[in-house]
Amino acid sequence: MKLPFLVFLDRDGTLIREKNYLKDPDEVELLPGVAEGLKMLQDEGAVLVIVSNQSGVARGFFGVDAVEAVNRRTLQLLADQDVVITNVYYCPHHPDEQCLCRKPEPGMLIEAAEASGLDLHSAFMIGDKRADVGAGKNAGTRTILLLTGHGQAEAAAPDGPSADYVAENFSAAAAWILAQRNKQK
Ligand SMILES: [Zn+2]
Fold first, then answer.
1. Catalytic pick among 10, 43, 80, 82
2. Cβ-based neighbour number of residue 9 at 10 Å
3. pLDDT band for position 107 (cuts 50, 70, 90)
4. Which residues, by Cβ under 5 Å, contact ligand 1, an ion?
5. Which residues contact 1 (CB under 8 A, 6 or more apart)?
6. What is the pTM of this model?
7. What b-and-e string marks burial along 165-175, b requiring 16 or more CB atoms within 10 Å of the CB?
8. 93 CA to middle of ligand 1, Å?
9. How far is the CA of 167 from the centre of ligand 1 (A)?
10. Predicted local confidence at residue 156, as pLDDT
11. What whole-number distance in Å separates Cα of residue 100 and Cα of residue 45?
């Protein structure tokens, strides 16, 4: 019996190709290695949860219906490869609204942990932005900065939180998580 643990996943630039305020489900494209990496994590007990900033809603670029259509398409492409995403959270707010859900605030992660009954100490957060790393740190998870999407630029920026691990791609991120889990056994 594998012990369940949470893995929080950013969406754009992490699971799917970054397309700058993506709103068309037909443009959803899984990044290489993502489905395989998620499958490996899932087989080790990972409970997979997407946490996504979607300020395009507050900015008037698209509605929540577009966000949800893109989410559904992402989940479908993953389900086609036997990956189950347990829950999807997104923040529709503008940065100026100073809500508690927009990453790097930890609101979505805390809510997901409460909903799942799983703890944040054993959780991981994977994303391509420092806001993802920040959200993970603020929630008390271990953090991985991916060099896909905005990751190269984000890693080169002088300020901001530093991740526990910087991964070239999703496969490397998944492998690192599994190595951390094995260390604890
Ligand atoms: Zn929010």
1. 10
2. 25
3. very high
4. 91, 93, 99, 101-102
5. none
6. 0.96
7. bbbebbbbbbe
8. 4
9. 27
10. 84
11. 29
| Cα 132 to ligand 1 centre (Å) | 14
Residue 61 token pair? 């670029």
Q: What is the 3-state secondary structure (H, E, C) of the chain?
A: CCCCEEEEECCECCCECCCCCCCCHHHCCECCCHHHHHHHHHHCCEEEEEEEECCCCCCCCCCHHHHHHHHHHHHHHHHCCCCCEEEEEEECCCHHHCCCCCCCCCHHHHHHHHHHCCCCCCCEEEECCHHHHHHHHHHCCEEEEECCCCHHHHHHCCCCCCCCEEECCHHHHHHHHHHHHHHHC
In CATH, the number for domain 5-150+162-184 is 3.40.50.1000
| Alpha-carbon distance values, 125 to 53, 96, 139, 159, 164 (Å) | 14, 24, 9, 19, 10
Is 12 in the active site? yes
Contact 142, 162 (CB under 8 A): no
pLDDT at 185: 67
**Ligand 1 centroid from CA 146, angstroms:** 23
How large is the average pLDDT for residues 141-152? 93
Taking the centre of ligand 1 as the mean of its atom positions, its distance from the CA of residue 99, in whole angstroms, is: 5
pLDDT at 96 over 80: yes
Q: Locate the domains of the chain by residue range.
A: 5-150+162-184
